[in-house]
Here is the input.
Amino acid sequence: MQNLTDEQRAFVEAIRDFARRECGTREQRDALTDGGVEPHNPEVYAQIASLGWLGVAIPEAYGGSGGGAVDLCLLCEEFARGLIPMGFFPVTMMAARPVELFGSPVLQEEILGGIVAGRTGAIAMSEPEAGSDVGNLSCRAARSDGAFVINGQKTWITGAHVASQIVVVTRTTRGEDKHFGLTMISVPRGVDGLEIRGIGTMGGREVNDMYFTDCQVSADRVVGQVDHGWMQLMAGLNNERLIIAAQSLGMAQRAFDDALAYVKERRQFGRAIGSFQTIKHRLADLACELEATRELVYGVASTVDANPGKMFPREASMAKLKATELAKRTALEGMQMMGGYGYATEYDMERHVRATLVTTIYGGASEIQREIIARSLGL
Here is the structure.
């Protein structure tokens, strides 16, 4: 990528230096992540907050740097590439976007300022019967004496178990238009009537079920307008899909880097296996894909920065689709090139595989992204 400013290049190098120093060895990473089980380390996250990096895309009014989509993508790509255990930062920023666009000044100060200070957040949309079909949500919020009482279940909620607040998408009105009647409510940590249970996954302690039983939340924690949550969600899609794309790009680059380093050292038949055509051509193809994907992701980010407030569903879906599919492919290719060692827990490649497989599912599965792109073509 050729169009970074000097300040942005220095930012990237600072993140890489931090990664090398704090989590550059497998021993360091294992200690920070409980052997790869915990994707998020609070102490490391606090260090990063003290450096001011968490506020890279937060407005200056709330203590942030006032940067845009490109700056946010740089941070997400580099922390993924450097294996910095700040796994709940992406979803924190996804939850922050509707608050930034539609939240009250009080909520903005609490949540946006909280991110700069090192607090995490989450966003809760999916339910047992509503994943890709967000309009089918049934978790209900009913008005009651200046508050909303929430009942229902959410599932697959990333980082809810450590979040300071969770933006919950609820059903407040049901009519013929299933997309009307959704309301976003910021639910604070520890509120009565909310139970959070972890879901075991191959990626570690990431996601949760949430159970609401007469959970009362003050009406002043509504984000934006009651019943208009669908359009508020749509307004944040550029942000969400770009964050996932940038993070996945970093995952892909790290899997590529690790595979390349291995094939340069591993010897068979008297020479490094990277000298064999089947290996080097595979890596050459991946290198091309990485550069093309990087240009796509940052091209979309630059367009978003140049057109604040405008939605780019087609372009954001393309970036998300391309980067996540590449991350999965690169990790699987890396495992194949490393043979049995790629499958062994002694090396990071098997972790790369586990981490990248889910990227094509969350934030809108690849099949959904293809549908969005296809509709933009008139199909």
Observations:
- Strands lie at 121-124, 140-143, 147-154, 165-171, 182-188, 194-201, 204-218, 222-223, 267-268, 271-272.
- The domain at 237-376 is CATH 1.20.140.10 (Butyryl-CoA Dehydrogenase, subunit A; domain 3).
- The first strand starts at residue 121 and ends at 124.
- The two ends are 33 Å apart (CA to CA).
